[in-house]
Amino acid sequence: MGQWREAYSVLADHLSARGIDVPGVLAALRAQHIETPSWGYADSGTRFKVFNQPGAARTAREKLADAAQVHRYTGVAPSVALHIPWDRVDDYGVLKEHAASLGLELGAINPNLFQDDAYRLGSLTNPDPAIRRLAIDHCLECIEIARTVGSRDISLWLADGTSSPGQDSIRGRKHRLIDALSEIYAAMPDPMRLLIEYKFFEPAFYMTDLGDWGMSYLMASRLGERAKVLVDLGHHPLGTNIEQIVALLLDEGRLGGFHFNNKKYADDDLTVGSINPYELFLIFCELIDAECDPSVDVDVAYMLDESVNLKPKIPALIQSVINVQVAYAQALLVDRTSLREAQESGCIIKAEEILLDAYRTDVRPLLAAMREEIGLDPDPLQAYLRSGYQDKIVAERGVADGGAGFQGA
Amino acid sequence: MGQWREAYSVLADHLSARGIDVPGVLAALRAQHIETPSWGYADSGTRFKVFNQPGAARTAREKLADAAQVHRYTGVAPSVALHIPWDRVDDYGVLKEHAASLGLELGAINPNLFQDDAYRLGSLTNPDPAIRRLAIDHCLECIEIARTVGSRDISLWLADGTSSPGQDSIRGRKHRLIDALSEIYAAMPDPMRLLIEYKFFEPAFYMTDLGDWGMSYLMASRLGERAKVLVDLGHHPLGTNIEQIVALLLDEGRLGGFHFNNKKYADDDLTVGSINPYELFLIFCELIDAECDPSVDVDVAYMLDESVNLKPKIPALIQSVINVQVAYAQALLVDRTSLREAQESGCIIKAEEILLDAYRTDVRPLLAAMREEIGLDPDPLQAYLRSGYQDKIVAERGVADGGAGFQGA
Amino acid sequence: MGQWREAYSVLADHLSARGIDVPGVLAALRAQHIETPSWGYADSGTRFKVFNQPGAARTAREKLADAAQVHRYTGVAPSVALHIPWDRVDDYGVLKEHAASLGLELGAINPNLFQDDAYRLGSLTNPDPAIRRLAIDHCLECIEIARTVGSRDISLWLADGTSSPGQDSIRGRKHRLIDALSEIYAAMPDPMRLLIEYKFFEPAFYMTDLGDWGMSYLMASRLGERAKVLVDLGHHPLGTNIEQIVALLLDEGRLGGFHFNNKKYADDDLTVGSINPYELFLIFCELIDAECDPSVDVDVAYMLDESVNLKPKIPALIQSVINVQVAYAQALLVDRTSLREAQESGCIIKAEEILLDAYRTDVRPLLAAMREEIGLDPDPLQAYLRSGYQDKIVAERGVADGGAGFQGA
Amino acid sequence: MGQWREAYSVLADHLSARGIDVPGVLAALRAQHIETPSWGYADSGTRFKVFNQPGAARTAREKLADAAQVHRYTGVAPSVALHIPWDRVDDYGVLKEHAASLGLELGAINPNLFQDDAYRLGSLTNPDPAIRRLAIDHCLECIEIARTVGSRDISLWLADGTSSPGQDSIRGRKHRLIDALSEIYAAMPDPMRLLIEYKFFEPAFYMTDLGDWGMSYLMASRLGERAKVLVDLGHHPLGTNIEQIVALLLDEGRLGGFHFNNKKYADDDLTVGSINPYELFLIFCELIDAECDPSVDVDVAYMLDESVNLKPKIPALIQSVINVQVAYAQALLVDRTSLREAQESGCIIKAEEILLDAYRTDVRPLLAAMREEIGLDPDPLQAYLRSGYQDKIVAERGVADGGAGFQGA
User: Fold this and answer.
1) What string of H, E and C letters represents the secondary structure of C26-94?
2) Does residue D128 have a pLDDT over 50?
């Protein structure tokens, strides 16, 4: 990265000559915010095994401390999503203040509706009204936490579904879900938003109550304007054109946010941009397209949600932030005027080459320049690794015990 | 099949003892109507080759004659879907009368928006307003034909989409589609319905404008109550729970009809029920579940849509009709009261066994009995093959020429 | 099931008239052996949550006790696969005797190469030779156990792979794998067999070292004649024609065994036959086809391998055994002579109808008759549920603690 | 592209400082040969429609003329694959000389075993020996053509398979295939190679006789050393790690060649690198890895095989060649020594970042420099579009007629 300055100079000249507003691009890169998830700093795993990471965070405070590192070196990760009850504390006001002291805000609140024994047959869609009550009450608790810590968004992922044909009434579950979400939504003060996630399958294997964007959209449109759809990049069947879904939801005013990650086959929760970075670029092209359209109101939360089990946590999240920045930077370089002309005249190759011209540009000098402007090291990953923090947490925290996946016993 | 009477007697006793209303089942089987497609009687193929079938129908009249055979032997296929311009005639009133003389009605009218050179970049979503005009006008023509022949449904499958990233504006195409469909819908007289089909991919390979049920639903909900969604069983990504989509659309009052076929990987257009007959059974379970719910208005058109290239056409369609009947008959035997109890008490295995009990029942004696009641041979396929009709059309019509798929030249 | 006798009588007459050797079918059904897995009696789950089952087995002895129940009521599950170290005991000779006292044999030995912290980057393919040594030694230990308990098969599933592009050398890992398997195979006494499982993905998400049948076949053909391929029905990409793989491996003399389960999307480990029972039937058609061919040596181990998290364990395994029996019984009814004639003359519909004729037959009376012949209740599931065993183990064992999936903490 | 010289200077300095042999990279880029397919210059389409391109080539000579353009502007496409009978001529010696006069060689010969009416039930695997004879004879004819024109490779894609369960004997078809391939292989003079392609599905929808790399590998290993596997990038189930298959086949000495294209869902035959360019880069990383390993003999034919229906043909192929060059150039920049060290020490993020460092480099200045060295325009696509050739062929050839896809009539 040492020679980035020279490369930046050549690139900036080239882009300016092409009519790109380079200072505007840098400003956009500075303004991008990417929320990291508290659970991304803690151990995670597959059903077969949790490989405990040396130094992985064990408490909400440790998670915030680690998140502060990601923000310190990237400058664009100022908020942290919480997961309740994983991050339950006695006093959320104190937690908020502690976060602020680290330069952080508390972001989306994620209720957990899948790890209580009661939820074996579902949470908000459970046939038993007492269990639905339990699940709704947990969501109401999360709304209260959000209010306390000043979070705008409730991110609701529902693991509900069935694993055997006939297990439950599909329409019955839908009715229960509408009823439950209506009660939850009614409890949310303006301007708090309900982000309704969907997922094609897993952990329910036969049918998932919110299985695709259409089901989340249906629910959101029933509830009201502050109910939005959350797109997790790993929650689609293979071959899905995610950027189309993004564009449609933006156009409908219903895209609330992203959970960024990547997949090779299923919900692999791999590092965002690590399997198909071009797809991530195309998604950002749609976001910028909508932002440039005054008729669309774009208000989207960018959140990482990965379950990277093998990589060390903080470096993995710094890498993820960078991958998102690279895709965004590339998308900012698209010559949108020429693209629209090529599209309208049916020049397919020309239109595609306009995208490729942006995508093939090495945008790392732009990111380095932006970082330098705000006083950061141009290479966040190396800067973090040099900082000694990783050694410190490994020494202080050690390795957690257990996490063997299911045991057959 | 000779011994079906004895088997029927044992089965009917057994079912009656279980509380099943056997005459009611037979009545339901008699009342089921399955529309066959005019194009199912003509040659079809893959992109690599059309294998011309000896005796395949070449004209609208030949297709109707063949469809009359399917109805003659099954008794449940009294209508034929038309595809315009494949079935274009000078006088649709005469065609209707001709159909009536064969004991047939004319069913859904299918506009063709994919085989005109103009549609290279789309039809209703084409960037060129002149081509959108052409496409809309074709739909208006189809509405006029539907009015003339007394068809209730316009079945709209849109091949529109793009095959390269950047080729066209995703949101722009959506806006054009809403505008076009609005004009088409406005031209449809009550009670004519617009059935909006969706398809995950092909022939557009990067993005399909109506790619999933959610997109069709979104359009339908914009248009009005007589806009419905059409579910083609082959138009989903692998792993999709189709019965869930069916249940949701029924519950929303938006399921307009089916295109029945089956798939192993993509839109293979294989014989319905030939790859996963249990899935077809589960779909009928949802249909019956909704029919039994007075709060749901079920008004669904059952249409075959296959592109069986290797099997002789008429026998293939008779086989398809039977496969649908078998699934429906099995679903009619589900003990719905016990199922609901098992579901509500979370007895997963019991609930599943109730479905399996119905599915494992050999329902062929019920179908044989129903056919005998209405004066048909209990084995439609054998009866047709014995009839001599197939030999007659082979002799009269011969084999069509050409259809070599793309030639590389 | 009460009226099965009358149905049996009609069916047996009908089959005999068709030339089916009904006593031969019953004999084949009696002779079928389906191995159950020790881990199928213990708690299992997804990465999100293990829902602990009341009464789930906790020790090797409890697992054997439960397996004895499955065998007691089905009569066709006389052996139990072990998983080491989950089933590790001090004295395997004693365990074998204990099994024998319950009427059971010990079946395939399954090494565990995925739950040791050392295996984060792989076991037999790990870049570190010391860890490969650890993994090989574990396999050698399992061979010793197999020798002690009289097991013929080592079932090797390798979770090895990588989750990031570039993580390791693909060819390097292949070379390490050949070396490790060669050492393991060399240690296996004749006639012990090495069954090499493959899996498309999970828990490695970017690349799996043994990802498909071809890779397992490649390894087996390097090792020797007693190295075979193990087919787990859930370990293929969607759309795979599994019966074709089965036929090819049989034809090559390399099919060693099955892990039976079913999937809707990924390796869902659902009840065998619960999503697509027709596929299971088609697999058995290939097995019987090969058994009828004197040039093929069929020696295949049938093992259940499910991770049914929501159903009670013993009933779920009884249900699974029955599902396998149903598919096998249906496949036994295929008129193979007529099928071959139809195939050779290109009569596609006729060939397919011959399969459907067998598949649509309600074979439950045949299974009931077979069970009665060997002194069992005709309905194993109901007989088990009536027996009081389930209540007994629930009372005695209670519910295990923990198993919350990953905690984000 | 105008400013590429300055960017090249900065990049070359940067790469040299990193230890990259920049002249060596340019030499490798010059030496890369990418074969274009004769059928890529002619009209093609989907099953629904062939959109005839103005100026598309209609004869073998027109195809060669167009291929000469692609080579003229890229400098790396000196050979053309032929498809028989699409490119059948009276005198292949004359065709070879004509090609030479255009600066071209004739490349792989592709038999056509899917467009004769006789092949409805298969070609080399047809149940009818007379049809197998026809298919074998066609292959023998192609071998003779290859001998005449000096082609080294026969590229065999087999559309054979079945579309209905039970349609034919799976093992029987395998036996017929081995027999047929053995006869074909025996007729091939050294050093002619048989490249055996595989495909997951289509146009056979239930089972494909050569459905995956394992089946092609099995055949090749039966035949002899000059039988190799051909990898078409579009012929895998979704989620397949193609670079792993490439690495395995290279390691086994069985990778014969590629058909380059890209897919979103099925065998979409889109522009190579247009959906997931990172995957293409990873494939080239494996190729270079094997080339750097003296124990591996890499002899791989790079061929484009696309069916781009909407883009103009020659520009689409120039674009495709460039996409392949970009991926290759990026892969040449991987710091292989550091990568190996990172892999061996388990530094996953570092290993991945080494790949990303190469992938994110804007390699277009390297390609421009290479082109200039060999006297070409640095921007082949623009140079072609400026040349007037496209206008000339549009004017001379016009638009072909027909190609309407299947007609339903």
Assistant:
1) HHHHHHCCCEEEHHHHCCCCCCCCCCCCCCCCCCHHHHHHHHHHHHHHHCCCCEEEEEECCCCCCCHHH
2) yes
Interface residue C277 vs chain B (CB under 8 A): yes
Kindly state the tokens that stand for C167.
């993580």
**pTM of the entire structure?**
0.98
Stretch B256-262: mean pLDDT, rounded?
A: 98
Nearest CB among C44, C121, C205 relative to A268 is that of C205
Mutation to test the D interface, candidates A362, A364, A379, A386, most D Cβ within 10 Å: A362
Q: Kindly give, in sequence order, each residue whose CB lies less than 8 Å from that of residue B88, ignoring residues fewer than 6 positions away.
A: B60
Query: Which two structure tokens, joined as six digits, stand for A165?
Result: 């044909």
Q: Which of B239, B277, B361 sits opposite C278 (nearest CB)?
A: B277
Distances (CA, A) of B43 to B158, B266, D396, D405: 21, 20, 34, 11
- Provide the 10 A C-beta neighbour count for residue D66: 25
Q: Give the span between the Cα atoms of D150 and D137, in whole angstroms.
A: 20
Kindly indicate the confidence band of residue C308, based on its pLDDT and cuts at 50, 70 and 90. confident
Q: How many helices (H) does chain B have, and how many strands (E)?
A: 15, 10
Of A405, A270, D346, D245, nearest in space to C204 by CA: A270
* 3-class secondary-structure state, position C171: helix
Which residue on chain B is closest to D118 by alpha carbon? B51
Neighbours of chain A (3+ CB pairs under 8 A): B, C, D
The set of residues, in sequence order, having a beta carbon less than 8 Å from that of A231 and lying 6+ positions away, is: A213, A242, A245, A246, A249, A255, A257, A258, A259
Taking only the tens place, the pLDDT of each residue in C356-383 is: 999 999 999 999 999 999 999 999 999 9
d(CA B177, CA B187): 16
The answer to whether A203 contacts C83, with C-beta atoms less than 8 Å apart, is no
**What letter does residue C152 receive in the DSSP assignment?**
-
β-strands D207-208, D161-162 pairing = antiparallel
What per-residue confidence (pLDDT) applies to B405?
52
Task: Give pLDDT tens digits for B353-364.
Answer: 999 999 999 999
How many Å lie between the alpha carbon of A80 and the closest alpha carbon of chain C?
14
Report all structural domains of chain C as residue ranges with CATH numbers, in order of start.
1-31+336-387 (no CATH), 33-332 (3.20.20.150)
pLDDT confidence of residue B409:
42
- Interface contacts (C, D; CB < 8 Å): 150
Cα atoms in the 13 Å half-sphere on the side-chain side of A47:
20
Closest chain B residue by Cα to residue D121: B310
Q: What is the ipTM score, two decimals?
A: 0.97
- Please report where in the chains the tokens 């389930």 appear, as a residue: C390
Structure tokens at D30: 């010059």
Cβ B206–D264 below 8 Å, yes or no?
yes
Cβ distance D256 to D229 under 8 Å?
yes
**pLDDT, tens digit (0-9, with 9 covering 90-100), for C218-267:** 999 999 999 999 999 999 999 999 999 999 999 999 999 999 999 999 99
Q: What is the pLDDT of residue B407?
A: 47
- Asked if residue C139 lies in contact with residue C111, where contact means CB atoms within 8 angstroms, the answer is yes
Chain A residue numbers with beta carbons less than 8 Å from the beta carbon of D348 are 310-311
| D268 to chain B: closest CA residue | B205
Q: How far is A106 from chain D (nearest CA, A)?
A: 28
Q: Give me the torsion for CA of A150, A152, A157, A158, rounded to 10°.
A: 90
Q: From CA A172, how far away is CA B251, in angstroms rounded?
A: 10
DSSP-derived 3-state class of residue C154: strand
Contacts of A115 in chain C (CB under 8 A): 48-49, 404-405, 407
pLDDT in tens, D159-197: 999 999 999 999 999 999 999 999 999 999 999 999 999
8 Å CB contact between D259 and D306: no
